């Protein structure tokens, strides 16, 4: 059984059911089920019950999360949805206080890596894992073997990614009456726009950007792009969440999503759309966690990941990451870092956000399509680390988009904003000296 918001770009469903490949009678049913989940996109949970037991799978970023309490043998999407789990009795305030720190932009950083949650006894199933309902523990199912890469196959793999993205947008065009694409000043949303060029030019997909004025770089660049290319665009003024709305958001998301998302998520309520499309997941193709000097044999352990994420060396976090690293011991450093980003950052921060979003709109993340993720892992590491993937796709699909700068203003404001940002960082450090010192200690540890 598979339930949730399910997109099926390659029409693998038959009468609403997954058809498992039964040609190979020696293949276990579990493997066939996992293969059946592969071509699905969206927010979904897969449940398999067969002779060997029962399993629960989440989608590639946990946009429909799976958490569980092994003591009461209960599965839910959020800790407080589990009967008997209360904030007063189970919330780990010490862990929350050690992780929470203010962001320069606004809000607090509260996301938590690993399988732990802020509720005692409640664990999270990470993407690429399933929950075994006999043993009540989570286990990796993908990747099952080391990733192979070859520079000669680069062009074919880029073409494959472009083909998958176009198939997703074709499906969106056939399924939704008013899809809207989030357009920012960054590369990921622009890459999506490039692959959706026919729909955008025909006005069958609109763009939107959150921001109150031209002093915000996302709005500044999006307005230039859409105006000069004649595209349909809607600016959304920021709507601040009330204290009650922030509390509801925290309870729904398990307190793992702070920052501006929590403080302004109500902004999206004004968007006229039946599908909202965003660029989450594009960072996997841009080697998000890699550092200069990394190679396939760079030693990475739990504390290295915590340092790269600027998280404290908390015993609960290190203990949670130990078994995860045992499960990736056969992979090289590049694969380990890519999986860490997908499973910990996306699975614990990006995925749970969707629990707080407006349920009457489908939220679609094309990059979080398993065929795209798998292909991205196989791209040449040097080429990826040079951030070539978005430029290659944009250059191939809509080269005019490359004339606009990324994350930078096109006028004198680019200089003023640098000064404003520096002042903001100094003010934040002055207001929170202990947090600033801890942050710098983690950031530069071992350098």
What is this structure, in a nutshell?
By secondary structure, the protein is an alpha/beta fold. Helices cover 40% and strands 15% of the residues.
Commentary on this structure:
- The chain is of the alpha/beta class.
- Helices cover 40% and strands 15% of the residues.
- The protein has 17 helices and 17 strands.
- Strands 1-4-5-11-12 form a 5-stranded antiparallel β-sheet. It has a 5-stranded parallel β-sheet with strand order 15-14-13-16-17, covered by helices on one side. Strands 7-6-10 form a 3-stranded antiparallel β-sheet, with no helix packed on it.
- β8 (101-102) and β9 form a beta hairpin.
- The longest helix is centred in the middle third of the chain and has 22 residues, at 154-175.
- The radius of gyration is 22 Å and the shape is globular.
- Mean pLDDT is 91; it is low at 442-447.
Q: Characteristics of this structure?
A:
447 residues; alpha/beta; Rossmann fold; 3 domains; five-stranded parallel sheet; 17 helices; 40% helix
Can you give the helix content as a percent range? 40-55%
CATH topology of the largest domain: Rossmann fold
Q: What is the structural class?
A: alpha/beta
Shape: globular
Architecture of the largest domain in CATH?
3-Layer(aba) Sandwich
Cross-sheet strand order for the largest sheet: 1-4-5-11-12
Mean pLDDT: 91
* Alpha plus pi helix count: 17
State which percent range the strand residues make up. 5-15%
Largest sheet: 5 strands, antiparallel
Q: Which homologous superfamily in CATH is the superfamily of the largest domain?
A: HUPs
Number of domains: 3
Separation, N- and C-terminal Cα atoms: 49 Å
Q: State the low-pLDDT regions, or none.
A: 442-447
Radius of gyration: 22 Å
């Amino acid at each position: 059984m598979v339930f949730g918001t399910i997109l099926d770009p390659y029409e693998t469903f038959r009468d609403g059911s997954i058809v498992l490949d039964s040609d190979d009678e020696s293949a276990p049913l579990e493997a066939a089920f996992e293969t059946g989940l592969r071509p699905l996109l969206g927010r979904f949970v897969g449940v398999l019950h067969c002779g060997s037991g029962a399993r629960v799978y989440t989608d590639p970023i946990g946009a429909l999360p799976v958490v569980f309490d092994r003591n009461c043998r209960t599965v839910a999407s959020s800790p407080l949805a589990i009967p008997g789990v209360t904030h007063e009795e189970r919330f780990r305030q010490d862990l929350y206080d050690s992780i929470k720190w203010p962001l320069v932009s606004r809000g607090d950083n509260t996301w938590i890596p690993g399988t732990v949650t802020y509720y005692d006894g409640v664990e999270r199933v990470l993407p690429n894992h399933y929950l075994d309902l006999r043993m009540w523990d989570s286990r990796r199912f993908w990747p099952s073997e080391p990733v192979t890469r070859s520079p000669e196959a680069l062009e074919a793999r880029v073409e494959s990614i472009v083909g998958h993205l176009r198939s997703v947008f074709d499906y969106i065009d056939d399924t939704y009456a008013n899809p809207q694409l989030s357009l920012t000043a960054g590369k990921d949303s622009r890459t999506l726009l490039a692959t959706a060029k026919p729909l955008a030019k025909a006005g069958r997909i609109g763009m939107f950007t959150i921001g109150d004025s031209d002093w915000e770089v996302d709005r500044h660049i999006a307005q230039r792009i859409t105006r000069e290319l004649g595209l349909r665009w809607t600016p959304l003024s920021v709507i601040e969440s009330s204290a009650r709305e922030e509390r509801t958001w925290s309870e729904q998301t398990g307190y793992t999503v702070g920052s501006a998302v929590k403080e302004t998520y109500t902004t999206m309520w004004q968007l006229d759309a039946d599908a909202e499309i965003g660029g989450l997941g594009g960072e996997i193709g841009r080697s998000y966690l890699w550092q200069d000097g990394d190679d396939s044999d760079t030693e990475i352990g739990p504390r290295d990941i915590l340092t790269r994420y600027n998280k404290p060396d908390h015993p609960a976090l290190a203990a949670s990451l130990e078994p995860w690293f045992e499960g990736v011991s056969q992979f090289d450093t590049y694969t380990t870092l890519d999986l860490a980003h997908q499973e910990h950052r996306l699975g614990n921060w990006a995925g749970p956000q969707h629990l707080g979003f407006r349920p009457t709109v489908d939220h679609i993340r094309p990059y979080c399509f398993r065929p795209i993720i798998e292909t991205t892992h196989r791209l040449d590491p040097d080429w990826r680390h040079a951030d070539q993937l978005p430029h290659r796709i944009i250059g191939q699909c809509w080269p005019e988009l490359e004339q606009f700068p990324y994350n930078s203003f096109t006028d004198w404001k680019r200089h003023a904003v640098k000064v404003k940002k520096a002042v903001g960082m100094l003010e934040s450090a002055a207001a929170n000296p202990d947090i600033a010192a801890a942050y710098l200690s983690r950031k530069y540890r071992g350098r």
